[in-house]
Amino acid sequence: MIRLAANLSMLFPEHDFLARFSAAAAAGFRGVEYLFPYAYEAGELRAALDDNGLSQVLFNLPPGDWNAGERGLTSLPGREAEFRDSLVEALRYAEVLDCPRVHAMAGLLPEDADADTRAAHLATYVENLRFAAGELAKVGRTLLIEPINGRDMPGFFLNRQDHAREILARVGADNLRVQFDLYHCQIVEGDLIRNLEAQFPHLGHVQIAGVPERHEPDRGEVHYPALLERLEALGYDGWVGCEYRPAGDTRAGLGWAAAYGLTP
Ligand SMILES: O=C(O)[C@@H](O)C(=O)CO
Ligand SMILES: [Mg+2]
């Protein structure tokens, strides 16, 4: 059975962030994810989870200077020390939140990147991922990489599913897996069922949203019932993150999720 997690960075924008936990639980969610926990004390977030019977299923490492446009540190040459510090911070939160997986965003390539610059990013990415996977393995957690479309994040280093598999092979760590966001995959390459099948042995997490507006999964060009049916048939037993911007009231737009056991 598909287990849906509420992405609290996007769902329930009607509420302040900390009030989104109870809103998600009231809508029937048992798991939550969000981009970043760092604006809050870990204990405060732990209490929000416990008070509402929720599990933390995913969050991201600190991404560098988000407001200045940075989108991850993992492939940035010269920022290795900062990446390692960000890992320590993420691990501290992961322990308090009992979160089994964290996502290390790749970061952006410069607009005019030549072959040498790309090669430097690739080498840094692989080295940082290998180090981080090793640290996470010591505490039994999983590291994720996510291909993201270049329309939403121009210059993002990792866009394609086959590139993610190539990175996994280069790093060679069992606890490094793919965060497969079907919204991004549809925009970059389509062929979702075949891509899902190819990625299945490497999946660590799945996310969904309608395309192209990133609204509810039952809006737009992607037929999610077929995709989720295939995912179940493949034997996926992880979480599926609802990472979309509701077109209206979040709760009113969750009718599609009843088919996957989400009941208030
Ligand atoms: O798809 C996304 O945008 C997220 O999953 C993420 O981690 C980076 O923004
Ligand atoms: Mg995503």
Automatic annotation (TrEMBL):
Keyword vocabulary terms for this entry: Isomerase
Q: Which GO terms describe its molecular function?
A: isomerase activity
**What superkingdom does the record give?**
Bacteria
Carries keyword Cell division? no
Q: Name one Pfam family in it.
A: AP_endonuc_2
Keyword Magnesium part of the UniProt annotation: no
Q: What is its EC number?
A: 5.3.1.35
Xylose isomerase-like TIM barrel domain ranges (all copies): 21-258
Q: Which InterPro entries match?
A: HPT_OtnI_isomerases (IPR053398), HyI-like (IPR026040), Sugar_Epim/Isomerase (IPR050417), Xyl_isomerase-like_sf (IPR036237), Xyl_isomerase-like_TIM-brl (IPR013022)
Which family does the record claim for this protein?
A: Belongs to the hyi family.
From the Swiss-Prot or TrEMBL record, give the protein name. Answer: 2-oxo-tetronate isomerase
What's the source species' lineage? Bacteria, Pseudomonadati, Pseudomonadota, Gammaproteobacteria, Oceanospirillales
